[in-house]
């Protein structure tokens, strides 16, 4: 197997300072928020890589950098050997871009309400000068909708159906990879499973590679081949899905597991991970997880644990073994 995506030392910092005048009056320094910090990982072709972590851990920011919607502050993303940020050959950039698509959490916001579904789905092809030739109708059929739906508008569909339309559009340019950013978290629990099954079937059928982003480990359990766990913008653990579910080695991953199965009747987490997520503008020293970690020692607040290999798992914790 070869890596389709190679992410190395990827970081993204946002300037979240107040306007200059306010800063001068209030004597405030610039405020920089590190959303993603030194993330390195590889995604093998035709596999599903799941990125999990709480809200604000940097999942979407990584997804946007992978598809080229956001430039990295440091580090690089290579798609099939092409670095979108440093490549200068426009043809190569265009080719790499068309190989990778993104599906977002909110299927309504990402569909143009004034366009017919046919035009929405065909757009990735027609925008590049290609002919659609019944493409939208074929894809609608493939995502479990009706070819006759092509003449309708997005508001005529349910949330789950709209996400199917987004999936059809993502498939239109025959990508090799799709970044799926919480594609089912805005949907009803009953519809979630259907859409996940569809995505899983399409992945096999078309030999796709997914970067699947979710805050919910139970959602990725059946789909993921490999899982990366993010905490405050850093990768803290990465392992094959089976290994991670069997032996989570990082205390944060263990905490996520402890919370995951406890859902109430509406599919909501009854007991989310304990403790507050720290402020990413001034993260805790050493291991950023130490204020919440049940087994933290002195060293943890002083020294940041490097990522290291423990029995095939990559884990960043001083005590993991
Ligand atoms: N354009 C931006 N400007 C400033 N800060 C940003 C920007 N985008 C993201 N951030 C910050 O970066 C951090 C990571 O955000 P990101 O959206 O990647 O998290 P996430 O893991 O996708 O969270 P969620 O599960 O809520 O979608 C957050 O603290 C967020 O406030
Ligand atoms: S390095 Fe220390 S604080 Fe961080 S997860 Fe490991 S034990 Fe907990
Ligand atoms: Mg997000």
From TrEMBL:
InterPro entries: AAA+_ATPase, ABC_transp_ATP-bind, ABC_transporter-like_ATP-bd, ABC_transporter-like_CS, Oligopep_ABC_C, P-loop_NTPase. It is found in: Cell inner membrane. Pfam families: ABC_tran, oligo_HPY. It is a peripheral membrane protein. The keyword ATP-binding applies. One of its GO terms (molecular function) is ATP binding. Residues 11-257 form the ABC transporter domain. Keywords: ATP-binding, Nucleotide-binding, Transport. The keyword ATP-binding applies. Belongs to the ABC transporter superfamily. This is Oligopeptide/dipeptide ABC transporter ATP-binding protein.
């Amino acid at each position: 197997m070869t890596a389709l995506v190679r992410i190395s030392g990827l970081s993204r910092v946002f300037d979240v300072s107040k306007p200059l005048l306010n800063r001068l009056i209030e004597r405030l320094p610039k405020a920089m928020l590190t959303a993603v910090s030194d993330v390195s990982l590889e995604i093998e072709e035709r596999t599903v890589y799941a990125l999990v972590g709480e809200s604000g851990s940097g999942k979407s920011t990584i997804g946007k950098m992978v598809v080229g919607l956001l430039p990295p502050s440091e580090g690089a993303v290579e798609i099939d050997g092409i670095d979108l940020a440093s490549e200068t050959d426009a043809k190569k950039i265009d080719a790499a871009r068309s190989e990778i698509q993104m599906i977002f959490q909110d299927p309504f916001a990402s569909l143009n309400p004034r366009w017919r579904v046919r035009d929405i789905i065909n757009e990735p092809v027609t925008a590049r000068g290609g002919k659609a030739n019944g493409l939208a109708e074929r894809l609608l059929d493939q995502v479990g909708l009706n070819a006759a739906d092509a003449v309708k508008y997005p508001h005529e569909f349910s949330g789950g159906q709209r996400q199917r339309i987004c999936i059809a559009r993502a498939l239109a340019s025959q990508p090799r990879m799709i970044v799926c950013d919480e594609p089912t978290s805005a949907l009803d629990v009953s519809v979630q499973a259907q859409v996940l099954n569809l995505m899983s079937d399409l992945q096999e059928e078309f030999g796709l590679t997914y970067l699947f982003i979710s805050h919910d480990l139970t959602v990725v359990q059946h789909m993921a081949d490999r899982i990366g766990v993010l905490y405050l913008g850093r990768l803290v653990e990465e392992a094959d899905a089976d290994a991670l579910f069997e032996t989570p080695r990082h205390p944060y991953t263990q905490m996520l597991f402890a919370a995951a199965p406890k859902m109430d009747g509406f599919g909501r987490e009854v007991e989310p991970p304990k403790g507050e997520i720290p402020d990413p503008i001034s993260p805790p020293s050493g291991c950023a997880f130490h204020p919440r970690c049940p087994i933290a020692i002195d060293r943890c607040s002083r020294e940041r644990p490097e990522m290291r290999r423990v029995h095939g798992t990559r884990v960043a914790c001083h005590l993991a073994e």
